[in-house]
Amino acid sequence: MASPVARLRELLADESKIIVCPGVYDGLTARIALQGGFDALYMTGAGTAASRLGMADLGIITLNEMRTNADMIANLDRSVPLIADADTGFGGTLSVHRTVTEYIRSGIAAFHLEDQPTTKRCGHLLNKQIVEEDEFLSRIRAAVNARKQSGGDIVIIARTDALQSLGYENAVQRLKHAIELGADVAFLEGVATREEAKQTVQDLSPTPVLFNAVAGGLSPYLTADEARELGFRIIIFPGFALTAVYEAVNAEAKLLKETGTTAKRAGSPKELFTALGLRESMAIDAAAGSRLYEKGV
To answer: In this structure, are 281 and 176 located in the same domain?
Structure first.
């Protein structure tokens, strides 16, 4: 079996297709997405902060929390590459080097690295601060060097949030310079229009460009086909699970509070556990000669 990063590079090499990545943030949402048969997954930093800390995406989460979560998700099914948020690299160049090294060791196929300060915020909030281009490029250079020194591989996605504050030309220039240093994919956060999105792809060609589909965010909410027609090679849906869970559990909480019960559903605990690898676990036990589950569950 090809490694996750080799599989992702193989997918990127097919210029006729776009890689569709549902955003997941824990084992359950990852298992659900894996059942859906997607070619790759995306671990959202906002979802990780929400699920692990119960807090908003404001640069509070640490490398260890992010890497531990990504490691678990990446290794549920190593045939499906995981793209993971890496925020700003969690500090200076030494921290970026450590982040990349640990992401590689965890089997993560790709990550994106941005140009906000460490006290960052979600890319679809307003009034983001941006570091100087030299500082951003030092992060990219540290990431490229760490990849080289690791003896392994990982796809580096250069992300800039400079569009709103510094303008299109400055933002695209940052991405071009990051690509010159060895970044594999470009990510312009917060493109305002379809025309700007298309122009971004053209200006950064032949480098693959990623589109971030955030419902209610700063960018037009494109479908995968629409993004492919504009020339994007990867599309991530970070709110795929987070928004759905928020809305569903909110409604369930309201129902329980008002009626004293929850909605009756056709599913069972066994059905849920099957989605979480119950059969695989039983097979492992049987292959070891154990009879723990021989009568079923």
So the answer is: no
